[in-house]
Amino acid sequence: MATFEYTSLTESGRSMGGIIEAASREQAVEMLTDMNLVVAEITKVQGKKSKTGIGRTELLLFNQQLASITKAGIPIERGLRELANDVSSRSMRKMITAIANELEAGASIDEAIEKRQRSFPPLYSRILKAGVRTGRLSEMLTSLNRHLEMGAKTKRIVLEALSYPLVVLFFAFTIIVALFIFVIPTFGEVLTDMGDGARLPWLTQQMLQLARNIIPIAATFGAFVLSVILILSLLSTNAAGRRFREAMLMKMPILGRLYHSSILARMSEAMALLVSSGCDMGECLRLSSGASGSEMLKLESSILASQVEKGAALMEAGHIGKTLPRLFLYSMQLGSQRNELQDNLHSLGEMYAEQSRCLQAKLQTMLLPFMIIFVGVMIGTIILSMFLPIISITTALM
To answer: Which end of the chain is more exposed for a tag (fewer CB within 10 A), N or C?
Structure first.
């Protein structure tokens, strides 16, 4: 994947610039066009993408401490130098010191952060700029931390919901394959010596046949899993593929609703943050959908933003969309009319985050008994198939 720096125009004529990753220049232009942007200039950024080693936890801590520094009235450059002395991460310490040097040279905090936009969330420099402009930097940083924490929580909920069944299935598959490789063949030899293999019960014969071919079967299954992973990876290389992957995920029972709620929670919190910074509705929709990490939301929000900028009402413009719920749009429209948009968006974020937590708990509650029953039935069938001939002989002798 290459990195491209672009300058573009929105449908309302505003200039918008940034960085995008794509396999080629043509793909980058296509991705920007899908976002309803008219590309004015696009150039490939030379060199490899810098790696800072800054983790999410370090970012949250940095943001909290920066908020405390500004709230206490300490000069930011001095506070950052003191903060750099307490940071354990070498890369983080180096970055904080560099920011402090630039501030002492006359740069603003938002300019220093914008130069390092790969290390920070997309909204970071914009929020800092709005905080400096309005004199509410500490408040804006606190709100930003709330957004980062919610984004981290909702992502973790989805990852836990996806990883839990996969881990259980992996161990179940490993146990069953081990039984077929090491246990059943031993029983098979004993059972074959007891008599003609044709006289063995049908279930026993099937299990012995399966044990003889378990390695090719396991290899075929492994190849299938790797193929699925490869296809999903290839779909991630372009916006259309990511939208297709999301559409498939959203059609899955419970898990689809869980993912949908999580991206809506992140978008709601990002929008609340942008509204407090003074962004207009169109810009809020585009930037917050980008912060959600969902290609479907980005495309739908970009179309919606264009309609809103032409004068359409939110409910009317959003009737063709499927990803943004009617409740979401209605709450936004009502909040705009009553001058309570920020509060409404915070409430939506909390509601969707709570839905995500409830759906995760429901998914795990349903999956655990299903997994136990599935593994139990499989192992029980294997044991029964091995003991059926012994039971038949014992019954005949009696």
So the answer is: C
pTM, rounded to two decimals: 0.70
Quick one: three-class SS letters along 153-165?
Answer: HHHHHHHHHHHHH
Confidence (pLDDT) at 253:
87
**How is residue 227 annotated by DSSP?**
H
Q: Please report which helix (H) or strand (E) contains residue 115, including its range.
A: none
Task: Please count the helices (runs of H) and the strands (runs of E) in the chain.
Answer: 17, 3
Calculate the dihedral angle through the C-alpha atoms of 94, 96, 98, 102, rounding to the nearest 10 degrees: 180
Phi, psi of 125 (to 5 degrees): -65, -35
- Return d(Cα 4, Cα 24) in angstroms, integer: 9
Domain-by-domain residue ranges, the chain?
A: 2-44, 56-120, 139-398
Residue 225 token pair: 């899993």
Which are the contacts of 335, defined by CB distance < 8 A and separation ≥ 6? 341, 342, 343, 344, 345
How many C-beta neighbours within 10 Å does residue 254 have? 14
Nearest Cα to 120, choosing from 49, 64, 54, 70?
A: 54
Q: Which of 266, 307, 308 is nearest to 287 (CA)?
A: 266
DSSP tag of 37: -
CA 4 to chain centre: 23
Name the 3-class secondary structure at 3. Answer: strand
Nearest to 296 by CA among 318, 321, 315: 321
How many residues are there in the chain? 398
- Listed in sequence order, the residues at least 6 apart from 71 whose beta carbon sits closer than 8 Å to its beta carbon are 138
pLDDT in tens, 345-361: 989 989 998 998 898 88
Higher pLDDT, 147 or 312: 312
Residue 24 is given by DSSP the state: S
By the 8 A CB rule, do 71 and 45 touch? no
